[in-house]
Amino acid sequence: MGTGQHILTNKTPSALFLVVTVDDGGEGAVRDAISGLAGLVTTVSSRAPESTLSAIVGIGSDAWDRLFTGPRPAELHPFVELAGAVHTAPSTPGDILLHIKSDRADLAFELGRLWTGALGDAVTTVDETHGFRYFDLRDLIGFVDGTENPTGADAVAAILVDEADDPDFAGGSYVAVQRYVTEFAEWNALPVPDQEDAIGRSKLENIEMDDATKPANSHTALTNLPDVDGRPQEIVRDNMPYGAVSDDGDKGTYFIAYSRTPEITEVMLRNMFIGDPEGTHDRLLDFTTAVTGVQFFAPTAEFLADPPP
Ligand code: HEM
C-alpha cells in the first residue's frame, strides 16, 4: 500500500480550498503542477519551520482520464446530484481540488499563490474558499463541528482504500466537497433549543442528545450510520467556516469529507437531502444551502510524485 497524503492532521486555524477545471490543452501543465506540489510545500514550509503546512490534491472523475493512462480508481465517479422534496445537493464542475491546511493564513495563501502560478492559464478556478477556525472549532452556526470524527487507527481505516478493494489505488482516499451558504438571520432567529434539535447536540457544552430525545430529522441522527457487516460507516470531516462579514457576501460551512469509498458519504447525503425515512430531510438544510458538490480521488504520495504518463 502506498503512502496516503497528509489528510489526518490536527485541526489547523487556516485552510484554503481551491477547485479548478482543466482547460483544453492544459493537461501537461496540470500534471507537472501536481508532481511539483510536494516541492512547493517544502519551499514554503522551510521559511517558517515552526509552523504547520500541508496540502492534499484530489482529481475528479472526468479529469482522471484526461491526465493519466492506465487503471483508474475503482469507485471514482462524478458527484451524485440529489433532489429531495425540499432541498437539492447540486453536482458542480471541478477537475482538481487543492486542500491546504496551515496554522498560518499567510503560508496557506503563499502556497496557493505559488501553485496557481505554476498552473498558469492551464486551468480555470471555479471555487476558491478561505476557511478559518472559529473559536473552539465551532461552525458559524455556533456548534462545535468535528467531535464525532474517528481518530487514530479508526480514522486511518475510515479514509484509506483497502488493498483488497482496489490494489492499484490502495492508500488513496475519496474526497467529497460541498460549499454551503447559511442564512444567518433565519438561523439566529431560531431559539437555541430548536437549534439543538436541528443538530442533535447541546450548543454550549456540545453534549449529544440521547436516542430517545434526538429528533429523527436532526443532522446527527441522519448522518450517524449503523455498521455494515461489522464495519463502521465513517468519514473524516475537515469542515471549515468561511465567508464575508457583510450581509451581501456568502458565508457558511465548507464541507470536506475523506473516506475509503464515496458510498458512505453518499448514503449520508441521501439521508440528509431525501430523508431516512424518505421525507425526513435534515433540519439543518432549512437554513443552509449547498451551492457546490464535487467528488475527487486523492491518490498516494507515490502516485503524485510519478504519475503514469
Ligand atoms: C456531525 C455541522 C454537513 C456528516 C456534525 C455536527 C455538527 C455538524 C455541528 C456535530 C458535531 C460533530 O460530531 O461533528 C455540519 C454543518 C454542515 C454539515 C454546519 C453543513 C452546513 C455535513 C454533511 C455530512 C455531514 C454534508 C455528510 C455527508 C456528519 C457526520 C457527523 C456530523 C457523519 C457525526 C454524526 C455522529 O456520529 O454523531 N455536523 N455538518 N455533515 N456531520 Fe455534519
Please give the domain count: 1
> What structural class results from the helix and strand content?
alpha+beta
Compute the number of helices: 9
The strand count comes to 12
Mean pLDDT: 97
Q: What is the ordering of alpha helices and beta strands?
A: EHEHEEEHEHEHHHEEEHEEH
What composes the largest sheet? 10 strands, antiparallel
Which spans have pLDDT < 50 for at least 5 consecutive residues? Answer: none
Tell me the fraction of residues in β-strands, as a range: 15-25%
For the record, give the distance between the C-alpha atoms at the N and C termini, rounded to a whole number.
Answer: 21 Å
The geometry reads as globular
Bound molecules: protoporphyrin IX containing FE
Helical content class: 25-40%
Radius of gyration: 19 Å
Organism: Gordonia spumicola
Family: Belongs to the DyP-type peroxidase family.
Keywords: Iron, Metal-binding, Oxidoreductase, Peroxidase
Pfam families: Dyp_perox_C, Dyp_perox_N
